[in-house]
Amino acid sequence: MRATSTTTYRSLGFFLDRTSTRMADLQKQIATGKRMTRPSDDPTAISPLMAANTQIKNTERYTKTINSGLDKIKNMEGHLDTINNVMIRMREITIAAGNGGYTSTDLQTFADEIGQLREQLIDSGNAQVDGKYLFAGFNDKTTPFTWDPVARTVSYAGDQGSLKYEVSPGESVEVNISGSALMQGDLNNDGVTDPGKFDIFSLITTVEDALLANNPSGAIAEIDNIVTANDQVLTLRSLKGNTASRLENGLRSMSQVAIDMHEMKSRFEDADLLATMTSLQQQESAFQAALTMTGKISKISILDYI
After folding, report:
1. Tell me: the pLDDT tens digits for 274-295?
2. How many CB atoms lie within 10 A of CB 85?
3. Where do the domains of the chain lie?
4. Residue 53: which H helix or E strand, with range?
5. Residue 26 pLDDT > 60, yes or no?
6. Which CATH architecture has domain 51-262?
7. Per-residue b or e along 236-259, where b marks 16 or more CB atoms closer than 10 Å to that residue's CB
8. Beta-carbon count within 10 A of 52 CB
9. For residue range 204-213, what is the model confidence (pLDDT) as tens digits?
10. Residue-wise DSSP of 73-106
11. For position 51, what pLDDT does the model report?
12. Once rounded to an integer, what is the mean pLDDT over residues 170-182?
């Protein structure tokens, strides 16, 4: 069957139309760097792309949470270090006072320094970040520790709230320390120091009162308790160090997951620019050839066959 010039012309027109559309798509891929710009470009890629996007959003959320937790622990670390140094200095003063050879005036001076150390402990216990108290549990808008000079006691107004951050699906870590556990040895916040623990403020006041009373032996009797109380602080500090390590590992893990998901997205979405440019050149050549042929056919008339 012989094809008429009209049929050939229509076929070339359809080819030109299709090639023009393909060229426009290739030009868009080169301009955007994306092979897939709409679902119809590759329907089979929709599901994995949606999964990758969801995973990327989750890693961004977890990364933000982890960084927030690390910031909180790092802020606590400096104050925990101060508390530790205060406890060490209190032990040094107590040992020095018990060595003898000091006058009542000297002991008064030691007592005054002990009082200053208590103020440092209260300041550290009342540490804030962004207007929130670090060691007040959930009650982080209220000053946790208050010194009563008449009763010579320090009261705690915070709570035992455990601030947990979700760092991965189904996994949360506690990033805070309650002031009652840290400074008063009260892990369950029932207002009573737990067995084997110490109220550091009561301990420091006991030492101060002994020195004020010119009773160095009463102060030296608290040496072992001071060491145990400091261990109480160091234990909680160590636990937060472990938490920080866990968060840092989680941060690295989330970073790797994000990289993997972006690479997967790239495989589906990104265009191979070299291959795309080559394909565009081929389409342009075919288009020009078809355009030339169409021009020749359009000039044919019945006079050509006479």
Report:
1. 665 676 566 666 667 666 666 6
2. 14
3. 51-262
4. helix 46-98
5. no
6. Up-down Bundle (1.20)
7. bbeebeebbeebeebbebbeebbe
8. 21
9. 999 999 999 9
10. HHHHHHHHHHHHHHHHHHHHHHHHHHTS---HHH
11. 81
12. 91
